[in-house]
Amino acid sequence: MGLKQNLHNLKEKYRGTKFEQGFNALHTFLYLPNTTTHGGTHVKDATDLKRVMNTVIMAMIPVLIFGMFNAGYQHYLQINGTAEFLTMDNFIIGLKKVVPMLLVSYGVGLGIEFIFATVKKHEVEEGYLVTGMLVPLIMPVDLPLWMLAVAVAFGVVIGKELFGGTGMNILNPALTIRAFLFFNWAAWMSGDKVWVHGAVDGVKKISGTDAISGETVLGALAANKPLPENWDAMNSFLGFIPGSIGETSTLLILVGAAFLILTGIGSARIMLSAVIGAAVMGLIFNGIVDANVITESSKFYSLMNFPFWQHLLVGGIAFGIVFMATDPVSAAQTSTGKIIYGFLIGFFSILIRVFNPAYPEGVMMAILLLNVFAPTIDHYVVQANVKRRMKRLKVKTT
Amino acid sequence: MADNLNVEKEPLFSKKNIGLVKDPLVDNNPVTVQVLGICSALAITAELKASVIMALSVIFVLAAGNVLISLLRNLIPPSIRIIAQLVVVAALVIIVDLTLKAYVPDLAKKLSVFVGLIITNCIIMGRFEAFALGNGPWKSFLDGVGNAAGYGLILVIVGFFRELLGSGKLFGFPVFGDPVEKTGLYALGYENNGFMLLAPMALITLGLIIGFQRSRNKSLIETN
């Protein structure tokens, strides 16, 4: 008797009891459900919520693997001055840091989903599959696991279950979790100590010159420091810079974006308009610097002077735009709405980045802000459409 | 006005009178059920001590104000009653403000504008309008104490969680150990939740209390 049959039997055994939902979820996660819809005509398609979620997870696998290598690479680069990228040592450091985060993220998140499903007697929803994967990718590498667990519990309960679970949340759950961490333990989520593995301990143990700096490109720019040579545009594009685990490699994020667009899951509208929005804001700032309105004495100088296209390569903006702004639940739903929504995300990301050095990466705030405004945007888009059609009707009848 | 006539026959602590104090504590709580007085509940609850002082101040202002308004209720012309009420509250709030400044100046500084803003606390005007204008002084006193205590109770609960989780202290006493010296819980890697000190978390804490209360008492759930 195979696992499938066993699960079938367990499911039958627990039907009607408290644990029905839990077993149901396990069963349908691993196999096709053994029930079909009754009556009516249905579109036959293999795409269901689980497949959508799995596609997004697949799109994130490259950045995850890269993030693991990069975690070790940045660590050794800081210690030795030079380092090879594709070494086993690098990967093992990444593995040791990222896999526990993944386990905590999925363990706590899915645990809460199961509890809620059991108590509320509804099916376990698949929404957390993507969130659980996103969460480790947007964290600094040395984040203590208990903090992650608390934040995941908060994000899933307050950010999602209270609104009614998957499909009802107004905010992106992964970003809710990150925002919670950011405001709760800012010392672990920002600054120049947390972005390279070992930097926190290193500062404590080694004093003076040997201390590891865990700074990011944006952090250095916000502090008006000159950038090291190995943080040039090419390395930012390929991802050999410090940062949150999964967000450094713009190249691999683009691969993920292409995959999402080809499979029809991520909205190309949102991604493109967000990139345009960010570029527009970046160009405005570059223009301000070119017009000599802002000089080198200003504390915003470095960030404003940073070329607009390079703004897109550093920090979490690419990752946010591709994997989080496109979250179908919290994004705008109408086509025009998506364009406005995406544009404003890009626009505000750069704006927050430049003007608020306390949040060197603005994309988190920008997406959360626009998540809140997405229904409003949709409302006005729909109203505008209604108005336009009414006008057409009037012209026709007169 | 009707039950004014038989007020003589009613014992001082009749069931109804006790209900005036008890009801607003939980089932008709001004903060969690009527959702009044939220601003100050969010603003000053980062520390338990401030919450307690604020609660006591409001109890004093509301109880005394209710009694005064109740005594004056037949003298105040209805057309200018709001102004008259404001004068009474303002006088009482100034008493509280000056007392705090005289005896606990540090805390008075922390509570800053919020003591003055007791004047605009909706609970106070609400009770004057809804109760003191139509009831005798003793009942008004009980109602004032009950409502202000209900408000204070929520303040203290929110303040308890915010100070405990936000600064690891209660009434300024370090409960979890010293965060700088890394003793107690901090030695295990615990760190204070800075978010708890910010107003959004007060709102979320309050929301959780409201949700918890409504899950226990289904009759409070609105049906719209």
From TrEMBL, chain A:
Q: What is its main location?
A: membrane
Q: EC?
A: 7.2.1.1
| UniProt-annotated location(s) | Cell membrane
Reaction equations catalysed = a ubiquinone + n Na(+)(in) + NADH + H(+) = a ubiquinol + n Na(+)(out) + NAD(+)
Q: Which GO terms describe its molecular function?
A: FMN binding; oxidoreductase activity, acting on NAD(P)H, quinone or similar compound as acceptor
A GO term (biological process) for this protein? sodium ion transport
Q: Which Pfam families match?
A: NQR2_RnfD_RnfE
Respond yes or no to whether keyword Cell membrane is given for this record. yes
Task: Provide one Gene Ontology cellular component.
Answer: plasma membrane
Q: Indicate how the chain sits in the lipid bilayer.
A: Multi-pass membrane protein
Keywords of this protein's UniProt record, alphabetized?
A: Cell inner membrane, Cell membrane, Flavoprotein, FMN, Ion transport, Membrane, NAD, Phosphoprotein, Sodium, Sodium transport, Translocase, Transmembrane, Transmembrane helix, Transport, Ubiquinone
* Residues recorded as bearing FMN phosphoryl threonine in the entry: T216
What stretches pass through the bilayer? 56-77, 98-117, 137-158, 170-188, 237-263, 270-288, 308-326, 338-356, 362-382
Required cofactors, per record? FMN
Top-rank taxon of the source lineage equals: Bacteria
The record's listing under InterPro entries reads: NqrB, NqrB/RnfD
Function, in words:
NQR complex catalyzes the reduction of ubiquinone-1 to ubiquinol by two successive reactions, coupled with the transport of Na(+) ions from the cytoplasm to the periplasm. NqrA to NqrE are probably involved in the second step, the conversion of ubisemiquinone to ubiquinol.
- Provide the family line: Belongs to the NqrB/RnfD family.
- What subunit structure does UniProt give? Composed of six subunits; NqrA, NqrB, NqrC, NqrD, NqrE and NqrF.
Q: Which HAMAP family match?
A: NqrB
What is the designated name of this protein? Answer: Na(+)-translocating NADH-quinone reductase subunit B
What species does this protein belong to?
Answer: Flavobacterium cucumis
From TrEMBL, chain B:
Any GO MF annotation of the entry: oxidoreductase activity, acting on NAD(P)H, quinone or similar compound as acceptor
Give the EC number(s) listed in the UniProt record: 7.2.1.1
Its transmembrane ranges are: 50-71, 83-104, 110-128, 194-212
Q: What does it catalyze?
A: a ubiquinone + n Na(+)(in) + NADH + H(+) = a ubiquinol + n Na(+)(out) + NAD(+)
Q: Which GO terms describe its cellular component?
A: endomembrane system; plasma membrane
Location relative to the cell: Cell membrane; Endomembrane system
Q: Which InterPro entries match?
A: NqrD, NqrDE/RnfAE
Q: Does the keyword Cell membrane apply?
A: yes
Pfam families associated with the record = Rnf-Nqr
What GO terms in the biological process aspect are recorded for it? sodium ion transport
- What membrane topology is given? Multi-pass membrane protein
Q: Report if keyword Cell membrane is assigned.
A: yes
- EC class: translocase
Signal peptide bounds: none
Q: Which UniProt keywords apply?
A: Cell inner membrane, Cell membrane, Ion transport, Membrane, NAD, Sodium, Sodium transport, Translocase, Transmembrane, Transmembrane helix, Transport, Ubiquinone
Output the superkingdom of the source species: Bacteria
Self-association state and partner proteins as the record states: Composed of six subunits; NqrA, NqrB, NqrC, NqrD, NqrE and NqrF.
Main function: NQR complex catalyzes the reduction of ubiquinone-1 to ubiquinol by two successive reactions, coupled with the transport of Na(+) ions from the cytoplasm to the periplasm. NqrA to NqrE are probably involved in the second step, the conversion of ubisemiquinone to ubiquinol.
Which family would the database say this protein is a member of? Belongs to the NqrDE/RnfAE family.
- Sorted alphabetically, which PANTHER family does this protein's record hold? ELECTRON TRANSPORT COMPLEX PROTEIN RNFE, NA(+)-TRANSLOCATING NADH-QUINONE REDUCTASE SUBUNIT D
Q: What is this protein called?
A: Na(+)-translocating NADH-quinone reductase subunit D
